[in-house]
Design a protein that fits this description.
Number of strands: 0
Largest sheet: none
Number of helices: 5
Strand content: under 5%
Shape: elongated
């Protein structure tokens, strides 16, 4: 994702966003990730969605509309996956009810 965005314009991503894209997946897609950490990464990914939307013209000029839409859907799917992971982690932390 970083290389794709940089090809259109290296100034689109800030250093914190670049670092997040490189490092956050290893923090959240492991068995002991906590819901707060997952939530934090999900919020960063939501900000990436806005960034992609704001850079749409530049990205489409390099890749075309269809590829931009695929890139945007991929980023959106990452947010959904994080939210699903967070919800699963929250349920795992909650005490189970006895029925």
């Amino acid at each position: 994702m970083i290389a794709l965005i940089d090809r259109a314009d290296p100034a689109i991503l800030t250093e914190p966003q670049r670092s997040s894209l490189m490092n956050d997946p290893s923090r959240v897609f492991r068995g002991d990730a906590n819901p707060a950490e997952i939530r934090s990464v999900a919020e960063k990914r939501k900000a990436l969605l806005a960034l992609l939307d704001n850079a749409r013209t530049k990205l489409e000029s390099v890749y075309g509309t269809a590829f931009f839409r695929m890139m945007r859907r991929t980023a959106d799917d990452a947010v959904i996956s994080l939210e699903d992971s967070r919800d699963g982690a929250s349920q795992a932390e909650s005490p189970r009810r006895q029925t």
